[in-house]
Amino acid sequence: MRGAPLSSRLNMRKYLMIGVSAFVLGAASMGLVNATAHATAPKPEAFHMLELFGDVLTTVEQQYVTPVDDKKLIESAIDGMLTSLDPHSGYLNAADYQDMRDQTRGEYGGLGLEVTADDGAVKVISPMDDTPAAKAGIKAGDYITAIDGKSVLGLPLDQAVKQMRGDVGQAITLTIAREKHDPFDVKLTREVIAVKSVKYHAEGDYGYLRISAFNEKTGQETADAVKALEAKNPKMKGLVIDLRNNPGGLLDQAVAVSDVFLDGGEVVSQRGREVSDIERYNAHPGDMTHGLPIVVLTNSGTASAAEIVSGALQDRHRAEIVGLTTFGKGSVQSVIPLRGGADGALKLTTARYFTPVRPFDPEDRHHPRPRGRRDRRAGQADRRQGLPVLRGRVPQRPERRRGRDPPGPAQPRRGAAGELRRQDRRLPARPGAGRAEGRLGPGPAADREARHHPGGPRPRPGQA
């Protein structure tokens, strides 16, 4: 085998890859048959296209002007297949999958720095309180020029952040450039960094609540913040919830946050591939703020889970929305680990979500059409599929608001042959005490667990 010509080895690899791919397709189809009884066997043209893919890979390996990395090529092909479905589906390699898990858990091993890219350098936005970075005296405006003696100038921000993160207890040395000082080294030890997604303070008789993302702790942090504001000022007159530039996150946490401000009733529903596949998420009875007036701030960076919260509070007449048109993402991605995450994960759109009022219907001329600054591909896809877009409403202009409000909630059609399955899904306790999550298909939970993750645009700064 070692002495075989290159072309023979490549052809053997090609047919081996086709055989493995065919086996995977067959196994996947059998699993889906057991799970849904609606799947069909792989079509014959699928095997032909797999052979075509093998031919293309072989040609690239043999004739491309420089040597290529097979793994990168195939990962890019997988990602391309998924992104061709819609701009929110994709492939996460093992490192990206771990990074996503760190974000949703709300904690990671690192230094406690919020950083951004500035002309090819890594600039410190701020150190987080009570973290190794803050204890070491790193300041906002400092520049990180090297990590463990290796320059990071010109390095993409995400790669610099990955180098600063790592196992808890490991030492790391940063080279800091500070105005009016010579560059100096700072030695730090990584610790568990808990990311606070909710910040709050009082402004006179009003409370201000900033929610920057939706991780596993956001619901509980929101409830705790409301309790703290009310304890500080029992006569608080109103609350401002700032969701600007919030890229979204976990669906169950969007429900948990909405639950804090709603007195029961529907928060959001999601609808899958089948007509009968409808899930409804409801709030518990009891509004923690007891009907306190609420204003929600939004802009074009308010996306996904943040739109679920703002949409629920708007549709249930619980809050006024002030600001710009939101991002306009109405889909839910299930993150499906491959081999327990060892081979990364699929981020696949498996449902669309709808706020309590009826969704946008492109055939209904009385319903406002989506418009505003949005991701072009996402906007085009969502308009074709009739997905909802939240529009910021300014309370001082009620005459304009009345003309834009949807006429009311959709009523599901009922009949002997077309009864819609409705599942009322309630959180088991107050926000943060539990999650409403789903699973897809058969097989070990480690390989098939699907976490509802509306996603959205990623924030530009990095956290290390």
Keywords:
seven-stranded antiparallel beta sheet; 12 helices; 22 strands; alpha+beta; 464 residues
Describe the protein's topology.
Layout: H1 6-36, H2 44-63, H3 70-83, E1 90-92, H4 94-105, E2 107-110, E3 113-118, E4 121-127, H5 132-135, E5 143-147, E6 150-151, H6 157-164, E7 171-177, E8 184-189, E9 191-194, E10 198-203, E11 206-211, H7 218-232, E12 238-242, H8 251-261, E13 265-271, E14 278-283, E15 294-298, H9 305-315, E16 320-323, E17 331-337, E18 345-354, H10 376-385, H11 398-404, E19 422-426, E20 438-439, H12 445-448, E21 449-453, E22 462-463
Parallel strand pairs: 11-12, 12-15, 14-19, 15-16
Antiparallel strand pairs: 1-18, 2-9, 3-4, 3-22, 4-5, 5-6, 5-7, 7-8, 10-11, 13-14, 13-18, 17-18, 17-21, 20-21
Helix pairs in contact: 1-2, 7-8, 8-9
